Amino acid sequence: MKFSFSSINLYNKIPLALAVSAVLSAPVMAASPEFSGGLELDFDASTTDATDTVFDQDGFVELNVSSRREKGDHFVMVKGGIRLTSDGDNDVVVRDTYIQFGDSSWDLQIGRFEAINLFPLGKDTAISNAGVTVYEANKVRGFVGTDGGQIVLHAKASDSVSFELDTLFGDGDVSGDGDSQTSFAGIRPSVTFGSDTFSLTAGMESVQYDLAATGDVDQTGVAIAMAFGLENADVNVAIANLDDKSTGATVEGVTSFTANFTSGNFGAGIILSKEDLAAGGPNPDLRTVYAAYTIPLFGIEDASVTLAASHSAADNVADDSATMFRTRFNYTF
């Protein structure tokens, strides 16, 4: 942007010069852009009650760039990231793309990203669920459709209490959780109480907008997540419930639970979930167990292979079982 001072009189030039000088002389902590990335490559063998064993290779190379500048207690940070997928479809997936600004007590984050996790699954390298919905309280968490985004407010009341207000802005057509004709189609407040070894987060989310044809989407969910450390393990426990009053919804409610732990290179967990059918009758329920173990490759830093598996069984549903074995290679740089 170019400025012309030809129309500014002499009396205006002096205070303007003083103001510019003050701004330029103020200390600003500037950092060069940081670049990072990594490769993730999966080899899968999976089967369900409805299908034979399927073998699949999938993965991506992720590239990220970020920069942060500070002035006093204030900061501005930006980040952008893409994934080059290995599935042969020439896909480039946009990941984190946001600006974040504020100070140590509050900040705004605007763009495309994931907000706080209200249903942490721990070492979830491989999870394949049978034909029952698992609600993870993530409909307003982030990574919405092609034309949508997020505006999130973080606020810190004290060292042990923090708040987060997530909003879904505009079109979220990929996940079905947004609407380009509604400015804020979803809202997701949460509060976290925590210390060095324990945290408790409670949150709710609401998604409401009119469908393009007829009817509407009206979903409300709540979740409570607890994380704590034992002597040699990190443990997560969470429960979430969804109430769906959308037009034509066949499942009126979903209640899901998880408990998992990670100890060193090993992690394991369990997922339980139950649907409340609108038509009544026996309600489907699900049980999934999963585990993963990571092995360094030749002792080389940031290079590893993870062996993972999951098994899921369900009742009162046609697709009542699912099993997956996964080998994942990781390299970060």
Could you explain how this protein is built, in words?
It is built from one helix and 17 strands. It has 333 residues and is mainly β. The chain has one domain (10-332): Porin. A 16-stranded antiparallel β-barrel has the order 2-3-4-5-6-7-8-9-10-11-12-13-14-15-16-17. A hairpin with a 5-residue loop joins strand 16 and strand 17 (321-332). Residues 1-26 and 173-177 have low confidence and may be disordered.
Computed Rg: 24 Å
- In CATH, the homologous superfamily goes by the name Porin
CATH architecture: Beta Barrel
Largest sheet features: 16 strands, antiparallel, barrel
How many individual β-strands? 17
Q: Give the H and E element order.
A: HEEEEEEEEEEEEEEEEE
Question: Total number of helical segments?
Answer: 1
Intertermini distance: 37 Å
CATH topology: Porin
Percentage of residues in DSSP E strands: over 45%
Mean pLDDT: 88
Q: Helicity level, as a percent range?
A: under 10%
The helix/strand class is mainly beta
Shape: globular
**In CATH, what is the class?**
Mainly Beta
> Number of folding domains?
1
Task: Reconstruct the topology from this structure.
Blueprint (H helix, E strand, L loop, with lengths): L9 H16 L3 E2 L3 E15 L2 E21 L2 E12 L6 E11 L3 E7 L35 E9 L4 E10 L13 E11 L3 E13 L5 E14 L4 E11 L6 E13 L2 E12 L7 E12 L6 E13 L5 E12 L1
Antiparallel strand pairs: 1-3, 2-3, 2-17, 3-4, 4-5, 5-6, 6-7, 7-8, 8-9, 9-10, 10-11, 11-12, 12-13, 13-14, 14-15, 15-16, 16-17
